[in-house]
Specification:
122 residues; mainly alpha; single chain; 4 helices; 2 domains; flat
Length: 122
């Protein structure tokens, strides 16, 4: 009886570790994508509106304000994304002499992905 309980306990622990690791991997992957995602003006408006949860009368009054700031937020975020890409590109150029072919390929793939995200949001 004691052996059976111990096996069940260890099995539960192992399953929990596997589920936790998989969950963290998915969560980390989703967050890393959002680092270089240039949010649209509409997404800013949706997030702000969802956060405030205004009633219909309030929404009518605050909509112009949110619209005006969504444009500013979009421009600032886009500029910051371009600066981050430039920073990564400069880092890559300094790292190239020390990297093997596989490492170069990985970082070039990531830089191309970031560049395509930025260009698609112009």
């Amino acid at each position: 009886m004691k052996k059976k309980s111990l096996i069940m306990l260890l099995g539960t622990l192992i399953v929990g570790i596997i589920i936790g690791s998989a969950g963290m991997g998915i969560y980390s992957h989703m967050n890393s994508k959002s680092i270089f995602e240039v949010p649209s003006k509409e997404k800013f408006i949706q997030r702000t509106t969802r956060m405030l949860d205004p009633d219909a009368a309030q929404l009518k009054q605050i909509q112009p304000i949110i619209d005006r700031y969504s444009e500013k937020a979009y421009i600032l975020t886009k500029e910051q994304s371009n600066q981050m890409f430039g920073n990564f590109n400069s880092m890559y150029n300094e790292l190239v002499p020390y990297l093997n072919d596989k490492q170069k390929e990985r970082i070039e793939k990531k830089l191309n992905h970031i560049k395509s995200i930025i260009q698609n949001n112009k």
